[in-house]
């Protein structure tokens, strides 16, 4: 029985587990769109392809399932690129169907011709074109299988004439993906056990590769008496029900996690690829376990590196470990973390003048959000407050652009999260700059009838960028934003909208906002001078802040300096 290539592609996507395809239709995509309409895959029309890619990668991260995006030739499929970079860096299995002009015109600078292989090869695990109709099923299978097996983006380029062609003898290739148990050899495990047995002050640093290994990590920590620090992406899997937790290190971390890692003499690094080298211990022996061989020793020199799934590896390692009796190192940092948390919570209160710090807004949302809520945030200060003040409990999940660091990902990521989890509360912590960058897809939220709750942190500027400038001794440059009343815009687009500017009105406003049955936007005027304070103060940023203060005073802006001091230090 003969089939059109467009049908074969969609049939293969469906068999690979794709449930949603995000995109914008166009001429070269029309036949694939028609096949999607006839399939069980739900098409989600977005207003900008970049938003579709953010949505797809968030869905893929949350569910682990392959998710699709599809675009027309030239600029249509090109618009996905930033979200595709985000997906690939997050190891999210996403497939991009990039429709292309007809084959006869390729290579002649035809209108809307783009070399997608050249463009997308640096941000994908697979990127190739279907050259003949007979390749359609086989190449679509390879694309899907590679995205799932390598956890990344597959780009399948489909010329319009190929998608319209018919295949008469279609060979039944199919997607096969298994989840093997991967762990090091017994000899490697013996060597790791020996390093840990002979270690003095041992710490564990765990990342997103520890998903599903909560029990095993706690069992190891209990046996070797180690505090557990985690990355921001490991927060969801390690923060809850963890008596050995000392939080995060790095610029968004706390002093307990920061010093526990720097002060240890032996570090067990689990499923973590934290990029900032200055936060690793210089003289400690480091044992690294990671499923990706390319991660071993690429951030900092290590003593022993092995390839393995964290859960399976620790299960096999645990019987080989010698029980330690001295827990003084661990206990010291657990106590220090408890004090740091108390200090953080004490700061998450209303401002001196009834203003609303971003930390206070986040703390209120944290208290009233559902126990199994899913959170997304824009990059910058909303992401900082997300990882510091949203408490996970084994049910909640948090998502931010922590590897790619892009603006505008918060709201469209929430779109994909809600689409894949229709009965779950989805909350977006949006920056005023990030939300306005992809404003148009608020209409997608309304069109799809998604009950997303969006909180806009309106400080009238690119806040995190301004903090970086101040740390370099600069006056704020090109960071100011002239914002609309976001609540009025939301209401005009069909969402529930409300603005709040006073701290004594915040609690009731947040409850009202979260109680709305449909999409709702809470526009909050947050304190513009609040800083994201690191767990330590390095000399260069301290000098930079002093220079900024002096320059601000000399430019007649002493009031800004006083507001910053009141907001952060009094």
From TrEMBL:
Q: What is its EC number?
A: 1.2.5.1
- Domain of life, source organism: Bacteria
One Pfam family, short name please?
A: TPP_enzyme_M
Q: Does the keyword Oxidoreductase apply?
A: yes
Which residues belong to any copy of the Thiamine pyrophosphate enzyme TPP-binding domain? 380-524
Biological-process GO terms, alphabetical: carboxylic acid metabolic process
Single GO molecular-function term? thiamine pyrophosphate binding
Among CDD domains, the record links this protein to: TPP_POX
**What positions does the domain Thiamine pyrophosphate enzyme central occupy?**
189-317
Domain Thiamine pyrophosphate enzyme N-terminal TPP-binding stretches: 4-118
Q: Which UniProt keywords apply?
A: Oxidoreductase, Pyruvate, Thiamine pyrophosphate
- Which InterPro entries does its entry note? DHS-like_NAD/FAD-binding_dom, POXB-like, THDP-binding, Thiamin_PyroP_enz_cen_dom, Thiamin_PyroP_enz_TPP-bd_dom, TPP-bd_CS, TPP_enzyme_TPP-bd, TPP_POXB-like
Keyword set includes Oxidoreductase: yes
Q: Which PANTHER family match?
A: PYRUVATE DEHYDROGENASE [UBIQUINONE]
Q: Which family does it belong to?
A: Belongs to the TPP enzyme family.
Protein name per the record = Pyruvate dehydrogenase (Quinone)
Q: Species name for this entry?
A: Phyllobacterium trifolii
Source organism lineage?
Bacteria, Pseudomonadati, Pseudomonadota, Alphaproteobacteria, Hyphomicrobiales
């Amino acid at each position: 029985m003969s089939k059109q290539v467009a049908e074969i592609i969609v049939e293969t996507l469906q068999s690979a587990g794709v449930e949603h395809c995000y995109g914008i239709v166009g001429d070269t995509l029309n036949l694939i769109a028609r096949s999607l309409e006839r399939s069980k895959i739900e098409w989600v029309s977005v207003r900008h392809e970049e938003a579709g890619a953010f949505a797809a990668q968030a869905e893929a991260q949350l569910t682990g399932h392959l998710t699709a995006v599809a675009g027309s030739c030239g600029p249509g499929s090109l618009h996905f690129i930033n979200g595709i970079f985000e997906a690939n860096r997050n190891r999210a299995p996403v497939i991009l169907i990039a429709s292309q002009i007809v084959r006869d015109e390729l290579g002649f600078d035809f209108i809307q011709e783009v070399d997608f292989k050249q463009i997308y090869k640096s941000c994908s695990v697979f990127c190739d074109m279907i050259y003949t109709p007979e390749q359609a099923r086989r190449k679509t299978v390879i694309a899907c299988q590679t995205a799932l097996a390598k956890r990344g983006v597959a780009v399948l380029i489909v010329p319009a004439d190929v998608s319209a062609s018919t295949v008469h003898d279609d060979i039944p290739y199919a997607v096969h993906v298994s989840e093997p148990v991967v762990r090091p050899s017994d000899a490697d495990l013996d060597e790791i056990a020996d390093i840990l047995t002979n270690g003095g002050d041992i710490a564990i640093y765990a990342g997103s590769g520890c998903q599903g290994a909560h029990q095993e990590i706690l069992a190891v920590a209990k046996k070797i008496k180690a505090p557990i620090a985690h990355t921001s992406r490991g927060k969801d899997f390690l923060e809850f029900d963890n008596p050995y937790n000392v939080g995060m290190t790095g610029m968004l971390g706390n002093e307990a996690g920061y010093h526990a890692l720097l002060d240890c003499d032996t570090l067990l690094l689990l499923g973590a690829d934290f990029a900032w080298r200055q936060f690793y211990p210089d003289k400690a022996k480091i044992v690294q376990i990671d499923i990706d061989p390319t991660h071993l020793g690429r951030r900092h020199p290590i003593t022993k590196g092995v390839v393995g799934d964290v859960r399976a590896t620790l299960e096999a390692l645990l019987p080989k470990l010698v029980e330690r009796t001295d827990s003084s190192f661990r206990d010291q940092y657990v106590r220090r973390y408890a004090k740091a948390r108390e200090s953080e919570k004490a700061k998450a209160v209303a401002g001196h003048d009834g203003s609303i710090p971003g930390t206070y807004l986040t703390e209120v949302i944290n208290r009233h959000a559902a126990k199994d809520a899913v959170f997304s945030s824009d990059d910058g200060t909303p992401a900082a407050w997300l990882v510091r003040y949203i408490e996970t409990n084994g049910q909640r999940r948090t998502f931010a652009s922590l590897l790619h660091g892009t603006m505008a990902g918060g709201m469209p990521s929430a779109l994909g999260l809600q689409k894949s989890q229709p009965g779950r509360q989805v909350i977006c912590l949006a920056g005023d700059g990030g939300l306005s960058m992809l404003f148009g897809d608020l209409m997608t939220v309304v069109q799809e009838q998604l009950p997303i709750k969006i909180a806009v942190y309106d400080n009238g500027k690119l806040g995190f960028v301004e903090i970086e400038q101040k740390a370099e001794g600069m006056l704020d440059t090109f960071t100011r934003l002239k914002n609309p009343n976001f609540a009025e815009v939301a209401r005009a687009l069909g969402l529930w909208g409300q603005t709040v500017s006073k701290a004594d009105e915040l609690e009731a406003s947040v409850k009202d906002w979260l109680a709305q049955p449909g999409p709702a936007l809470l526009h909050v005027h947050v304190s513009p001078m609040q800083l994201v304070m690191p767990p330590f103060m390095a000399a260069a940023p301290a000098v930079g802040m002093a220079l900024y203060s002096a320059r601000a005073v000399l430019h007649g802006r002493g009031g800004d300096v006083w507001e910053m001091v009141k907001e952060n230090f009094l």
